[in-house]
Design brief:
The chain has a domain of 74 residues. The strands form 2 sheets. Strands 3-4-6-5 form a 4-stranded mixed β-sheet. It is an alpha/beta fold. The radius of gyration is 19 Å and the shape is globular. The chain has 9 helices and 6 strands, in the order E-H-E-H-E-H-H-E-E-H-H-H-H-E-H.
Length: 239
């Protein structure tokens, strides 16, 4: 989208302060902000909008707080497209991801209603209807739109690599579980077993290739896509 000339905003809800085996607290949250900023530059997006909520504590926020924040951002930036996690994927184990998915879905669908948070009107933020919604998950039965990323896959890897502490944390977590399961990582991966970024790249490419298996291109990302309210979608499909 950025390459096509779209202005891209990325919103990060939490400070990332719990996701590391090596770093902690302010050092970790500052590192995550710097890495996110670098990744946005690589992708051609605006500097990230860091909301700064404490990692793993979104479920402790007052009810409706996160939805209001997202609704305010939608009315402020007036996006044509919003991409977020699919709230109807039941396999998500991370409480922050679940909280973001639900709050984002509600904000996307109801930011157009003027009676919701009328204080926004007092701040000259007008209601806004989001035209296109892309929801991502790991549930194939939810996918109805496949996007060709063959030409930009290496850019995706470069942007992911900018999240150095996150890559270290995620891959190390998987490797620790593999060792506990008694797997011989050196026998499986060879020299790559000690190169976390190479392991991540391999995993990303395998996933993208699998998603593109039924398509006419090599690598894909998959989403549950909506343009209208599901009721209207069903009516249009029937007509």
């Amino acid at each position: 989208m950025a390459a096509d000339g779209c202005r891209v905003f990325i919103v990060v809800a939490t400070d990332g302060s719990k996701g590391s085996f090596a770093l902690a607290g302010r050092e970790l949250s500052d590192t995550r902000t710097a890495e996110m900023t670098a990744a946005c530059q690589i992708m051609g997006a605006d500097p990230p909008i860091m909301l700064g909520f404490t990692d793993f504590e979104l479920d402790l926020l007052p009810p409706g707080k996160l939805r209001e924040v997202f609704m305010r951002l939608i009315r402020q930036h007036r996006p044509d497209v919003v991409i977020t996690e699919d709230p109807f994927w039941l396999g998500e184990t991370h409480p922050d991801h679940r909280a973001v998915a639900i709050a984002a879905m509600e904000a996307i669908n109801y930011a157009s209603l003027p009676r919701l948070h009328p204080e926004h009107l007092e701040q000259e933020l007008q209601p806004h209807f989001v035209t296109e919604k892309y929801f991502y998950s790991e549930e194939p039965s939810r996918f109805n739109k496949f996007v060709d990323i063959s030409a930009i896959f290496e850019k995706k890897v470069e942007a992911m690599a900018a999240h150095a502490s996150q890559v270290e944390f995620l891959v190390e977590g998987v490797l620790r579980q593999a060792r506990m399961a008694g797997l011989d990582l050196q026998a499986i991966f060879g020299e790559m077993a000690d190169d976390k970024l190479s392991l991540l790249r391999m995993g990303l490419k395998m996933t993208a290739a699998g998603l593109a298996a039924s398509q006419e291109f090599e690598l894909a990302e998959a989403f549950h896509y909506q343009r209208f309210d599901p009721i209207i979608e069903n009516f249009l499909a029937g007509s």
